[in-house]
Structures are given as C-alpha cells and as structure tokens.
Write a structure and sequence with these properties.
9% of the residues lie in helices and 65% in strands. Strands 1, 2, 3, 4, 5, 6, 7 and 8 form an 8-stranded antiparallel beta sheet that branches. The protein has a single domain, classed as Elongation Factor Tu (Ef-tu), domain 3 (Beta Barrel), CATH 2.40.30.
Length: 127
C-alpha cells in the first residue's frame, strides 16, 4: 500500500486499514411523537493504519516515525478510500510500535499503528 504524509510517499506493507466515519450533528430535541431530530453538519473520516515495516529500511522507518511524531497542528495525508484515495488535513499520532530486533549498529522496529484524525469535513450535509 502507498500513502503519503505532507507530500512524502511511503510504500509499506499494510496489515490493516480501519476507516472510522463520524457524522457531526447537533441535537435539536425530541418532538411529542418521540422522534429525535438533528441538524447534520458533515462527516469526518478518521483512519487507523497498521503497517508492516518489514520492507522498509531503517532510515525510511526512522524518517516516517520522526514525521508522524513531530508536533504539528496538522499534516496533509493521502490514504486509501473506496477504489481510489482521499487527501485531507489530519492530526497524526502513533498508537504504538514494537521493537523487533536490537543490534549494535541499528534497531528494527515493526508493526507501526498510525492514527489520522480528520480536521475538516470530508462531506458537508446537504440539508
């Protein structure tokens, strides 16, 4: 799978991509017949991407890790969406990664999980 962060493309082995849509809505109340009413504002697509670092060399992994752990208000990410990709501004964080091997001159890390929290609506409500 290929994805990009701030224009840097990474070709990684994907273990799992979880897309988490959330609809932003304002509750308007409940009418006498028991029906709840909302004002729909839009939908965010958050992502959780677990990658295998097996095919990445140590410097590529280190560069990716430094990029996603740099404190920034947002990053531009491109990730899989349906049969294509979607690009959006996101707050990035690392859920976890695992030290697989430790040698004298390098360490091999693996199974990195990245969380991309969308900062803008992917779709705005049409109502």
């Amino acid at each position: 799978m290929m994805f990009s962060i701030d224009g840097q493309t990474f070709n990684v082995g994907t273990m799992k991509v979880v897309r988490k849509p959330s609809i932003d809505k304002i509750p308007l109340g409940t009418t006498l017949d028991g029906t709840k009413h909302y004002l729909n504002k839009g939908v965010y697509y958050d992502y959780e991407i677990t990658i295998s670092t097996r095919n990445m060399n140590v410097s590529e992994y280190d560069a990716l890790y430094e990029l996603i752990t740099t404190p920034a208000n947002s990053h531009v990410v491109s990730v899989p969406y349906n049969q294509t990709t979607i690009t959006f501004n996101a707050f990035l964080s690392v859920s976890n990664d695992t030290l697989l091997q430790s040698y004298t001159n390098f360490k091999r890390w693996g199974t990195l999980t990245i969380i991309a929290e969308a900062l803008e609506y992917a779709k705005e409500a049409t109502e």
